[in-house]
Amino acid sequence: MKKSIYQKGIFSLAIGMVTLLASCSDSHFEEINKDPNRPENATTTTILLSAEKQLIDNIRNENFSLRGSQLFAQYYSQNIYSDQSRYDIPRAYSDTYWSNAYKALNNLNEIIILNTDPAKKDVAAAGVAGTNANQIAIARILKAYAFQGLTDAFGNVPYQSYGNPDPEFQALQQNPENLSPAYASQQKIYQDILNELKSAGDTLIKYKTATTFGNYDVIYKGKNELWAKFANSLRLRIATRIRTKLPAESKTHFEDALAKGVFTSNADNAVFKYQALAPNEAPLYRATVTANRKDFAVSHVLINVLKGEMGTVKVEDPRLPIYATKNAAGEYVGQPYGLPVAAAGLLTATDVSLPGAAVNAASYGEVLQEYAEVSFLVSEYKNWDQQAYINGVTASLQKWGVAPADIATYIAALPKADKANVLNQKYLALYTQGDEAWSEIRRTGYPTFLVKPGDVVWRRTANGQTADYKFQPLFGEGVPLRLYYPPKEQSVNLVNYQNAVKAQGNDDITTSLWWDK
C-alpha cells in the first residue's frame, strides 16, 4: 500500500476551490491558501472543504463512474471504444479510485484527530468550525459514506472506525504509520458503519439548530439538522442492503432511523454543487466538454425505457429531454449498448443522444443521496407501499424540474407498486448516481430490461444486408459483481491482500460480495 494513502494529514486543496466559497469574506483567502503540505497549520474548515471535493470527485471521476459504474448500470454506452461496456476493466482504474478514496478518508480522519487532541481541540473549534463533537460527527458521516462506496466496489477493504477499537479497524492509524493495514470483512464494515451513522446522527440531532463548518461545508452549509437526516437516510440504504443477511439488525436500524428523522423532501437532499469556473467544474463536464470528447452517449436501454418502448410504463417519461439530447435528426436515439469494437463506431456522435444539458452542466450538483431514494427504500420496507412509491417518483420528477401538469400525467400512467415497478422507478431516479445504481442492480437483479449476454442490441441494415449485433461480455457473464483490487496492493500489502482473497474469493469481477451471495 503506497505511503501517500495512509501518510498523516496528506491532502490537496486547489487554490481555485475558493470559488466554492462565494459567500465567505476575502479574509478566508489567506487561510485557504496555506501550504497543503503542512496539515498541522490547516484549519478543520479547509480540510473539510478539501475532503468533500476529493470524495465526490473520486466517486464520480471518469474512470470509476463514466467508464465504470455508469456503464455497468447501462445508463451510458460507448461508441468507438467499447471494451469497458463489455467489462474489460483496466486494473489501473481500481488503483486511482482506491488511492483517492483513502486520501479523502485521511483528511476526514485528520478532522477527528484535531478535535480530540487535548493540545489542539480548542483551536479546532474556533470561528465558524463549530464544537468538537459536531465536527467529529460530520467527519464520521462522510467517512461512513466513503467506506460504503469502497466496500461496495471491492468487498473486504482496510477500514477505520471512530468508536470501535477492533484491531481490524485501524486502516488510518497514524502513530506509527500503518502502511500495510489488514482488510476488514464487508459484514463487519457494514455493521460498524450503521453504528457510526447512528452515533453521529444522535449527536447532531441534539444540536440541530447549530451550524458546523459554515460555508466551508459545500453539501449542507453547516446545518446540523440536515446532516442528522443524511446520517439516518444513509442508514436506510445500508440496512436495506443487508436485510437478507442480517434481518434483525437491519430492521432495528431501519426503524430507529425512520423514528429519528430522514429526508422528507428534496430540500433535504445531500448534494455537492460544482462551479462553472475552472478548476471546479463537475466531473462529467470535465470528462466530456473540457476534454472535447463525445464517445459516451445515453444507452439505447435508457432511451427506450424513457420513450415508453420498454419497461412497465407505456407513456413517454418527462425526464427524457432532461436526461438526453436529440440527435442531429431531431430524435432521441440511444447508443446500442456493448457493441463489438468493429461496430461501435458505425454510429457517430451526431447519430445518437448525448447526456442532457442539465446533466452535463459545469455547475451540476452531484447527489450523494436524495429524497426519491429514501421513498423507494420505505416502499420496499413496507412491502412495496403505494404512497411511498408515488412519493419517490414525484420527488425525482420535481428534482429535475418537470412541470406539475406533466408530473400528474406521468403519475396517472404508473402501474401499481410492486417489486418490479418500484425498483424500475428507483433505477430511473438514480440516473447519474452510477455507484448506487450498480449496487442496487447487484442486490436486487432489477431492472430486468437491462441487456444480457446474447441479447441483440442493434439490428443494422446497410446495402441491402441486415446484421444483428449481440452483446457478448469480454469477461464474466453479466454485470460485474465487484472491481479488481489495485495491483499495488500485491506489492506493498501482499499478506493482507492474500488473506482478503482467501476469505472473500478470487480477485476478479465475477466474485460476489458478502451481501450479494
From TrEMBL:
Keyword Cell cycle among record annotations: no
Q: Does the keyword Signal apply?
A: no
Which chain regions cross the lipid bilayer? none
**The protein's name:** SusD/RagB family nutrient-binding outer membrane lipoprotein
**A Pfam family matched in the record:** SusD-like_2
Organism's domain of life? Bacteria
Q: What are the entry keywords? A: Lipoprotein
Matching Gene3D superfamilies: 1.25.40.390
The record's InterPro entries line, in alphabetical order, gives:
SusD-like_2, TPR-like_helical_dom_sf
